[in-house]
Amino acid sequence: MSNFNSADIAAFKDVWVFCEQRQGVMMPTTFELISEGRKLADELGVELCGILLGDNVDGIAAELGEYGADKVYVYNSPLLKDFTTDAYTKVIVEAVEEIKPEVLLFGASNIGRDLAPRCAARLHTGLCADCTHLDIDMPNYKGFLREASTLPAERIEKLGTVMINREPHPVDRDLKMTRPAFGGHLMATIICPRFRPQMSTVRPGVMQTQPFDEAGAAKVVVEKVTPALTADDIHVEILDIKKSAKKLVDLIGADVVVSVGRGISSDPEKGIALAEELAGALGGVVGASRAVTDEGWLSADHQVGQTGKTVHPRIYVALGISGAIQHVAGMQDSETIIAINKNENAPIFGIASYGIVGDLYKVVPELIKEIKAAKA
To answer: What are the residue ranges of helices labelled H in 227-344?
Structure first.
């Protein structure tokens, strides 16, 4: 649109979430983002809106109201049935240019990571990728820093403005987007003070889904929009979709996660076998620290931490994991944490609900035996 200007900050309002669906089923990350978007919209005093693209997807739009959405813009077209970068980018960019949201969130899925940067480039705005924490409200952000950073308290208290073109700029209405940097060894908070919308992709599993509210479905406003889209706008033809037969571990949805760390280095094969047996006895899945996946002992889909997946299981068992901050960030919100480590000073014991100082190769077989006996 000729009158669109991403630098006209005052023209933008509301928080938007790209609501990813596949074959008419909403992705779990969408509900996480709607829940987080509700918090951000409340802090800004604006509406939370979902943007939903597909073919005949009206029926799932109301689900978004159950998790906090005020309004859902639904764009239906046979050309949107299957995801293509060309079609989805065109529809979203034109919607943003017309309605002008101040925040636009995407899940950091394969689709979100493809789509978000293309939209940001066309809209001439910034994008912070793979975020693990979002804030608008400065007191909330400072509280987060006190808990999660090593910044001195006096530095945290002084935060509130940045210099833009040699002028102080208050950041109280800017989205504070925090993500891992330098391979997960640091956390960086990014802002986009000069352009709108403020865009972010958010790692799946890091945001808590708020409780289901059935009444929200009745209150949400569903606005159907006909997209200005033709086959000529799409430069790729999808001939067929074949799903991979490879089964990836579902860490995010697991009720129990048994993770292994560098402590299995003396016999990785045996250590992983013990973890798998313990996970089987508890009805869970096997996770890993970055050290384990870097060594190639387990594939990357098992990795828990800042550069892996964030999990919130009922039980998290850490076998031979020291408790580096990068790993802890991905599992510290587990309901119960059980740590087994030979080093009694390992940091993991500082957050563990229960700790066992001992050789995991001796302790875990005894645990498995006791669990099986209790189930017998």
So the answer is: 268-282, 290-294, 325-328
**152 vs 146: CA distance, rounded Å:** 8
Residue 155 backbone phi and psi in degrees, to 5? -65, -40
pLDDT digits (tens, 9 = 90+) for 185-221: 678 899 999 999 999 999 888 888 888 887 777 788 9
Contact 257, 280 (CB under 8 A): no
Assess whether the previous peptide bond of 197 is cis (omega < 30° from 0).
Answer: yes
CA distances from 23 to 209, 296, 298, 313 (A): 22, 34, 31, 28
Cβ atoms within 10 Å of 3's Cβ, excluding its own: 8
Closest by CA to 274, choosing from 266, 283, 265, 264, is 264
Return the beta strands (E) in the chain as ranges.
15-19, 21-22, 25-26, 48-54, 71-76, 103-107, 127-131, 133-135, 161-164, 167-170, 176-181, 186-190, 198-202, 221-225, 256-260, 285-288, 315-319, 336-341, 354-357
- Whether 115 and 88 have beta carbons less than 8 Å apart is answered as yes
Sequence-separated (6 or more) residues with CB below 8 Å from residue 14: 41, 46, 47, 48, 49, 99, 101, 102, 103
pLDDT classification of 280: cutoffs 50, 70, 90:
very high
Contact 76, 56 (CB under 8 A): yes
**Reduced DSSP (H G I as helix, E B as strand, rest coil) percent helix, strand, coil of the chain, to 5:** 40, 25, 40
How many CB atoms are located within 10 Å of the residue 5 CB?
Answer: 15
- pLDDT tens, 263-274? 999 999 999 999
How confident is the model over 49-106, as pLDDT tens digits?
Answer: 999 999 999 889 988 988 889 999 999 999 999 999 999 999 999 999 999 999 999 9
Dump the DSSP string for 138-201: HHHHHHHHHHH----HHHHHH-SEEEETTEEEE-TTS-EEEEEEGGGTEEEEE---SSSSEEEE
Maximum C-alpha span of the chain: 72
CA pair distance 360, 272, nearest whole angstrom:
11
Q: With H, G, I as helix, E, B as strand and everything else as coil, classify residue 251.
A: coil
Q: What is the DSSP string of 173-186?
A: TS-EEEEEEGGGTE
Percent of the chain with pLDDT over 90: 65
